[in-house]
Amino acid sequence: MDRSSEIREFLRTRRARITPEQAGLAPYGGARRVPGLRREEVAQLAGVSVDYYIRLERGRTRGVSEAVLEAVARALRLDDTERAHLFDLTQPSPARARSRRPPAPQRVHPVLYRTLDSLGVPAVVQGRRTDVLAANRLAHALYTDFEARPRRERNFARFVFLDEAARSLYVDWERVAGDCLAALRLYAGRHPDDPQLTELVGELSLRSDAFRRMWADHDVVAHTSGTKRLHHPLVGDLTLDYVVLAVEDDPEQTLVVYTPEPASPSAEALDILASWTSTSAPGRHTPEETSGPAG
Asked: Per residue in 75-129, pLDDT tens?
């Protein structure tokens, strides 16, 4: 991905969402040609020259200081995730700048497989680019049998945007899709040279109008917890809370666990689904056979 273009569009979309009134500026006398703040107004709020900010928005970030980036982040009212994304785009780590080799394939630790099996609720190990590296039986029954798919298709973004079943499964499909894409965009800021990311974004852009529309928003999000509402074809409506847990052995792996409110209709529906999976769900691969999508 072109870093200069990513910087330009991220900053442009962030300033487009803030009005001068929200920023505490005097109303502009006359017609405004752009939504939100103008570049001159961002420069004023950040305490830098207009020329300096324009160079920054054009992706010319050589020598830019952390103090200036912090000032721009405050001027644009970036949250912590957006601020980190801005730093990723403008100040790539030296190790990343030196290396253009594809990342090594991710492996799921055998203990993590046993953890998945021991949980009585849906759980998924997610890796780079929203790849599904592993899941327990209940997660396969809740979403889709990822392990029955070709390895490159074991990916939440592909499922959400390209599988019609996802649109009927997620009650709030638009929000879920936006969050999934925003997590992918956050990863892209850290790994712009990942060839499998480029392939994934290209495929989704060609095949999904919704993906193209949302990708142009340049939103980013770091998932930690939340709630999903689903309409399952077998057990009906479920409301599940989820928590995202870091995997210490690999900072780019997370364990996502879904739980219902105790003694709720969703808990009863999940129990019914669990009962069905114990007799009808296909067995999953052994840890040696399943390492998730390559890369």
From this structure: 999 999 999 999 999 987 655 544 456 677 899 999 999 999 999 999 999 999 9
pLDDT at 94: 56
Q: What is the pLDDT of residues 249-290, one digit of tens each?
A: 888 999 999 999 999 999 999 999 999 887 554 445 444 444
**pTM listed for this prediction:** 0.87
Answer yes or no: are the C-beta atoms of 214 and 184 closer than 8 Å: no
Question: Given this model, what pLDDT does residue 20 score?
Answer: 86
Nearest to 11, CA basis, from 36, 48, 47: 36
Kindly report the number of other CB atoms within 10 A of residue 201's CB atom: 20
